[in-house]
Specification:
Blueprint (H helix, E strand, L loop, with lengths): L7 E6 L2 E7 L10 E7 L3 H4 L19 H12 L5 E7 L6 E10 L2 E4 L3 E4 L5 E3 L10 E7 L3 E2 L5 E2 L1 E3 L11 E3 L4 E3 L11 E3 L11 E2 L10 E3 L23 E4 L15 E3 L1 H10 L5 E6 H7 L1
Parallel strand pairs: 4-20, 8-9, 12-13, 18-19
Antiparallel strand pairs: 1-2, 2-3, 4-5, 5-6, 5-7, 9-20, 10-11, 12-17, 14-15, 14-16, 17-18
Helix pairs in contact: 2-4
């Protein structure tokens, strides 16, 4: 016996929904349509379709500049981020680059002025490939760091000068005894502990009251930072410690110096950036090609 498939077809005509039940026979000539008409209120077809929720434009127009491309990628991968500090170098070996603040707006990502920035004397290196003391700035995307000092104060910014007006997080005025531990595999590594200047030796540990120039004001870049610091216990890999955004250091000739791993700016540029930062900010750091591919 031959099996036949009998389709049901639906038409909408002048506000009426007509369901056409097509019978099937062995021969095409025997097909005869039978229509069943079901009334549907006219409002059901006269009103335009509406969405239940409002669409959010998270990306905007296609980005064009490298800064926009990086911010765009960060915004796609980290939901809710509306501000990215983009630090770009021409190559991974470069110790000089640019810093721009990118903002997500109704028309897409908009990048601000490009400030000259200094980075590690040996360039940049992805965080998990670098080691403390190698002279590179960690490459990657990092949040604004949050730390707890030896006296219990929680902070994201610090400095030897008064709070310049930051709003993204708490500011700590540097105090006597503030020692930032950077000796790999010591309990103080990556933490702000209390020590005298004599017991906070360089080049690893940093006695913050003694760095009055570069640490006039600084922001914590959350690369291997509390609460999960790798390297503060024996056997752990010391990826990075004391990675900050701070003011330029200068040599005897008055020229800017590369850093040991931080990002630095001119005084006025630093203040302008610190004051516009928001708590959801991300730092995107690296050479242009690597960062576009990995942000």
């Amino acid at each position: 016996m031959r099996q036949l498939f009998c389709p049901t077809r639906t038409l909408v005509v002048a506000g009426l929904c007509a369901a056409l039940l097509v019978s099937c026979a062995a021969e095409p000539a025997a097909i005869a349509p039978v229509a069943t008409v079901v009334a549907v209120p006219s409002a059901a077809v006269s009103q335009p379709a509406t969405a239940n929720t409002t669409a959010v434009r998270a990306t905007g127009p296609r980005p064009t500049s490298t800064c926009q491309q990086v911010a765009f990628q960060v915004g796609l991968h980290q939901i809710g981020v509306s501000q990215v500090i983009v630090v770009l170098t021409p190559t991974a070996a470069s110790s000089t680059g640019t810093l721009q603040v990118a903002e997500r707006t109704a028309v897409g990502w908009v990048c601000g002025a490009a400030h000259t920035a200094r980075l590690g004397k040996n360039g940049t290196r992805p965080l998990l490939q670098r080691r403390s003391g190698d002279g590179t700035t960690p490459a990657g995307v990092f949040p604004l760091g949050v730390m707890t000092a030896w006296d219990g104060q929680v902070f994201s910014f610090f400095g030897n000068s008064a709070d310049p007006g930051v709003t993204a997080g708490p500011y700590r005025r540097v105090r006597v005894g503030d020692c930032f531990g950077a000796t790999p595999n010591a309990p103080s590594y990556g933490h702000l502990v209390y020590r005298t200047a004599a017991n906070c030796p360089g080049p690893d540990d940093e006695y913050l009251p003694g760095v009055t120039g570069a640490y006039e004001h600084a922001a914590l870049i959350g690369a291997n930072m509390e609460p999960n610091v790798s390297g503060d216990a024996p056997g752990e890999t010391p990826y990075a410690a004391a990675i900050f955004l701070h003011r330029f250091s200068y040599d005897a000739a008055g020229l800017t110096k590369p850093t040991a791993g931080c990002v630095s700016l001119a005084h006025a540029d630093l203040l302008s950036v610190l004051r516009v930062m928001r708590s959801d900010v991300r730092f995107a750091i690296g050479d242009s090609a690597w960062l576009v591919a990995n942000a």
